[in-house]
Specification:
Layout: E1 7-11, H1 24-36, E2 41-44, H2 56-70, E3 76-79, H3 85-93, E4 102-106, H4 115-128, E5 133-137, H5 139-142, H6 148-157, E6 161-166, H7 171-180, E7 186-189, H8 195-200, E8 205-208, H9 215-226, H10 230-248, H11 254-263, H12 279-292
Helix pairs in contact: 1-2, 3-4, 4-6, 6-7, 9-10, 10-12, 11-12
Length: 293
């Protein structure tokens, strides 16, 4: 069983200059900050990376730069998803895998396929991907839920489908996947606030948004959970609840970019249609970051 994706993964933001061009020096600073924070792996250009607003050429540049910045120090995952299956298969076929260890691919969004459509989509993804595949179910963004049955079918049918990032918020669904999944298939939390309870049920860890700003604190909590030290992990879980609420209060990644600005890691510029958080929230985030030290 691969242990690469146990623990804390970070869905990294993409830093931008004030003119909304990519801030590569800040991206390097973020990579080093996260690795120094002892996270287990990084995810480049997931939803948190504002991948929907980057061109194909920009994505290639970010992936290449991130792989060079990481330099093999931790495993690295590329977020590669689409609601156009044919286009996605082509993207995977031409993906430069240098420095990358897996692909995180979101369930098809907007089209609202039935479960058989989701299965057939991922079947082609699994067959085309040069790297292991992590499924990603996030109904609040995609407009459709990938059921436990579909996740388990994919987990059993394709050896290179190694994990699911689950962000449905549905504990009945979580229970079914965790109960019936193959032993070597990883269940990864896709929602920061429920990582602690999910790990008590057998989740392998989290792919986190808040960890961009609090890598040390979050990864310590997750490692304690992996060691079955839930009593020791609980105070960290509860201490992170307020910052988690604040960072998602006006959408992601606006909140976490506000926190990263406070920490001096990168600016808080977003690309439209996303906009900055309000001054009131920005100040509240800064106060909570200061409180957490």
């Amino acid at each position: 069983m691969s242990t690469q994706f146990y623990g804390t993964g970070i869905a990294m933001v993409t830093p931008f200059h004030a003119d909304r061009t990519i801030d590569f020096p800040a991206l390097k600073k973020l990579v080093d900050f996260l690795i120094d924070g002892k996270v287990e792996y990084l995810v480049s250009l997931g939803t948190t990376g504002e991948s929907a607003t980057l061109s194909k050429d920009e994505k290639k540049e970010v992936w290449r730069f991130t792989a060079e910045a990481v330099a093999g120090r931790v495993p690295l995952v590329a977020g590669i998803g689409s609601n156009n299956t044919t286009e996605l298969v082509d993207s995977l076929s031409h993906f430069d895998t240098a420095g990358f260890d897996a692909v995180l691919s979101v369930s098809p969004f907007y089209n609202k396929p039935i479960q058989e459509g989701i299965y057939q989509h991922y079947k082609l993804v699994a067959e085309a991907s040069p790297l292991p595949v992590i499924l990603y179910n996030v109904p609040s963004r995609t407009g459709s839920n990938m059921t436990a049955e579909t996740t388990l079918r994919l987990a059993n049918d394709f050896k290179n489908v190694i994990a699911v990032k689950e962000a449905s918020g549905n504990f009945d669904q979580f229970n079914a996947i965790l109960r019936d999944k193959p032993e070597d298939f990883l269940f990864i939390s896709g929602d920061d606030p429920v990582t602690f309870p999910l790990m008590s049920m057998g989740a392998a860890g989290v792919i986190s948004v808040i960890g961009n700003a609090l890598p040390g604190m979050l990864s310590e909590m997750v490692r304690l959970c992996l060691d079955m030290k839930f009593k020791e992990a609980a105070p960290l879980h509860f201490d992170l609840l307020e910052i988690t609420r604040l960072l998602f209060a006006e959408g992601s990644p606006g909140g976490v970019k506000s926190a990263l600005k406070t920490l001096g890691i990168c600016g808080d510029t977003l690309r439209l249609p996303l906009v900055n958080v309000s001054n009131t929230l920005d100040e509240a985030v800064a106060r909570e970051i200061e409180r957490l030290g």
